[in-house]
Amino acid sequence: MTRVVAGTAGGRTLRVPTRGTRPTSERVREALFSRLEHLDAVAGARVLDLYAGSGALGIEAASRGAAAVTLVDSARVAVDACRANVAALRLPLVTVVGERAERFVQRPVAAPWDLVLIDPPYDLDEDVLAEVLARLAGPTALDPDGVVVVERSSRSPEPRWPTDLGPTDRRAYGETVVWFASPDASPDETHASSAPGSRPR
């Protein structure tokens, strides 16, 4: 069972697609959003949730005070689950888009995103992920103070970051690794916080 961890919809159950998705565990979501709230990256934010699956990450952001959330997934079962969850939880500021993430990020946006959550299938080709990250880099797609979160398997290599986006932190939770990145990442900060031994604080 997948539930919203906290906020206005805290404790509510989410519908999960019957196949093709790997929902982020409640433990990882709780730790992830604790970190994001410490960074003041959620309340009032414009949030993009790519490869949304059930929409758990984006819905968690909405529950915790995000101003607007867009859930993007290309699988019909995922889109149906996202729409059912948004309707059941009565989240009018959450939009569901049925489209490939790689195509969606090529579109111009009305305003830069403040927070981008990327939780693709673990078998997603690294070149595809690199292209998505490259499309998100730059002030027209991502706010200069914005945060990008990438969730990957502990067996996956570090994402290939574009020039205008770099990692600021790496957190490991069992088989899951979460990377935090921002446009203003400094080389020294990246080195220190991305060490393989990093663990949740």
Describe the model.
With 201 residues, this protein is an alpha/beta fold. It has six helices and nine strands. The strands form two sheets. A seven-stranded mixed sheet has the order 5-4-3-6-7-9-8. Strands 1-2 form a two-stranded antiparallel ribbon. The longest helix is centred in the middle third of the chain and has 14 residues, at 76-89. The two termini are 26 Å apart.
- For CATH, the homologous superfamily is named as Vaccinia Virus protein VP39
Average pLDDT, rounded to a whole number, is 90
Shape: globular
Radius of gyration: 15 Å
Number of strands: 9
Could you tell me the CATH topology label: Rossmann fold
Which architecture would the CATH scheme give at its second level? 3-Layer(aba) Sandwich
The largest beta-sheet arranges its strands as: 5-4-3-6-7-9-8
Low-confidence stretches: 187-201
Count of discrete domains: 1
Per CATH, the class reads Alpha Beta
The share of residues in extended strands comes to: 25-35%
Q: How far apart, in Å, are the first and last alpha carbons?
A: 26 Å
Order of helices and strands: EEHEHEHEHEHEEEH
Roughly what percent helix?
A: 25-40%
SS summary, helix count: 6
Pfam families: Cons_hypoth95
GO biological process, one term: rRNA methylation
Keywords: Methyltransferase, Transferase
GO molecular function: methyltransferase activity; nucleic acid binding
